[in-house]
Write a structure and sequence with these properties.
single chain; about 15% strand
Length: about 190
């Protein structure tokens, strides 16, 4: 299924224009080579002092126990559509620098950059990534034994885009609606705030 491109005010990469957070997934596993490429893209994201504070825990649908542990922490509204996603990924950020154990105040920012690289790589390979904050982070930490030194980021549902007609009507409408972004004048300044 071809991704529709968004209309931008100024020229940007075609990957940025095509990237969407879809909810409809094909019943098709993501190949291990493509999974490896997603994390390779994240690996090459920039980070403060080249700390690379990100870590990822992933589960394919074939790994039923682990996939279900991630799935079970999701809010009910996400479970409706995530049930069809063949790959779930939990992103994490190490809170402190390794070299001096001081707080890394940009760790979560750096994780967001790595997640963005991963998302654009997915778009390049015909995959969809939908990042979610709607889950029980405390339960994830308990169920997956996440050490306290890591801050929990997002859970991502990843897979090949499916047929929006198979979604509940309210989600279908969101799936096919054009993407909307604020215009630059509302968030870009070149003088004092």
């Amino acid at each position: 299924m071809e991704s529709q491109s968004s209309k931008t005010e100024y020229p940007v990469s075609s990957l940025i224009k095509k990237r969407r957070s879809k909810r409809a997934y094909l019943d098709k596993p993501v190949e291990q080579g493509k999974i490896n490429s997603l994390f390779e893209a994240a690996r090459w994201a920039p980070s403060s002092m080249n700390e690379q504070p990100w870590s990822y825990l992933y589960a394919t649908k074939d790994q039923k126990e682990l996939w279900n542990k991630l799935f079970d922490t999701l809010m009910e509204g996400n479970k409706i559509w995530v049930k069809d996603a063949p790959l779930l990924v939990l992103s994490l950020a190490r809170k402190n620098f390794k070299k001096n154990d001081k707080t890394n105040t940009t760790a979560k920012y750096d994780l967001g950059g790595a997640n963005a690289f991963l998302s654009l790589q997915a778009t390049e390979m015909g995959l969809n990534v939908h990042q979610m904050g709607g889950f029980d982070a405390h339960q994830v930490r308990l169920d997956l034994n996440i050490p306290d030194e890591y801050e929990i980021g997002v859970i991502m549902a990843i897979g090949y885009p499916g047929d929006p007609d198979l979604l509940p009507e309210n989600l279908k409408q969101r799936e096919v609606a054009p993407r909307f972004r604020k215009i630059q004048d509302t968030f870009v300044m070149n003088e004092s705030f």
